[in-house]
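Trying the structure run again after the queue cleared.
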Amino acid sequence: MNFFKPVSIQKKSTDKTKVLLFLVLFGFSFLNLYIVFRNHYSFNTFAYDYGVYNFAFYDFAHFRVSQCPVYLFPFPITFLQDHFSFALIILSPLYWLLSPIFGTYTLLFIQTCIIAFGGWATYKLIFFKSNNYILALLALLFYFVLLGRFTAATADCNLAIIGSAMIPVFVYYFERKNVTATLLCFLFLLITREDYPLWLFFISGFLMIVHRKEKFKLKLSALLFVLSIIFFIIIFKFIIPGFEDENKKYNLFAFTALGATPLEALRYFFHDPLRCIELLFINHSKNNYFDGIKLDFYIIYLFSGGFLLLIRPVYLIPFIPLIAKKMYADDPIRWSSESYYSVEFASTLPLMLFLIIAGLKKDDTKLPVAILVCCLTMIMTCKEIYRPAEFHRARLGSPAKYDLLNKDFYLIDPNVKEIHQALKLIPGNAKVSASSKLLPHLAYREKIYYYPRVDDAEYICLFKKDTWPASQEESDKKLAQLVAEKGWKILIEKHNFLLLSNK
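Done. Tokens:
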């Protein structure tokens, strides 16, 4: 087939198209699943955040909102005090259906399914707008090959990964005028993260502009526009303060360059707009180590098709809160292309770019442009994955967590199987203290502590060299004291692994 030839309108998909759709959707979904499953199996997931997520998932499924013993705060807090989100509560009934099959991999499986759902919606939306199956397939391919889809693997499971994948689903049902499905997606997104109502405010505003001549869609998007800002105010004015206590205050609004609160930040935009624009591009951390991080992100995503947004600037509107949240943050890691801090772009950019491409006046330019964008994106993604670790100055996680171009990524330590067998010796109802890389595998229980916190634990399970937040010396000293003075007995000691019991 000549991909540069305009494709005629097709009312029904061919068998060949269905096969291609299956290969792209399920092939990349399987790859994503393999990456996160392999990381978890190889003890490359961590107490923060996957251990916390697994405990909360188990806790919510048992109709509890308990103080999470994994946290290292000097005072007890619940998951909801640290992450404003009810999305995990909504998903928690799936624990009973899926955990007998997937165990502590369940959330990773659910997240991968939601990512696939977002990819499917991207395909369906672009076909609905273009009547071009090849263009829709290229949009789906683009959705999966963006760098942010891979770097998110360093975060294992995250509400931002889950929520952002639902944006294409929301937009697709909106465009199809399916009010019930649109509102359900909208409500799920509202409760996913505290910043999502603001993002939905901009997305709804964008939909109002592009559908200003369509009465039904204009009214629906206007309603969502108003509801978004109302819910944003309710969250910060009433819901978040309701979760705070004398010890734990909301601290996720970390944009001190703009102000201490969202209201102060809004005032600063009007007070000094030029400075606000400047902050989008400069290092405001006062540490030269982070020079160029923002520029690096812009280069990656401009060459990954972002340059097309300049053709239709109105399509930049959904990215305004994403760029602001990213580049105004106090923590420089958030400015980068690393971890999950670009995953919203990986879900939204395919929609915006391929809607622009579908709207090009000349049919014979659509496929060449789409193919060019996909090729450039694959080059940028491979280039970034293959870059030596020292170039990733702001990297949060190990490049080994998604370095598909490195043969070592596919090798698993032969001792891993023995360790998994050893973990089965710990009863499901036992109280356990575990080091960071082991804790996510043991978090489906009422009492799970982050070693060196022990409290009333009955078992201690750790990697001797996995000592954070304690130093190696502090960890070794505490371990020796537990064995010598507290009556703990070593059940298994192999390689770097230790299993102890006080029973």
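The chain has a mean pLDDT of 91. Worth checking whether this holds up in the mutant runs.
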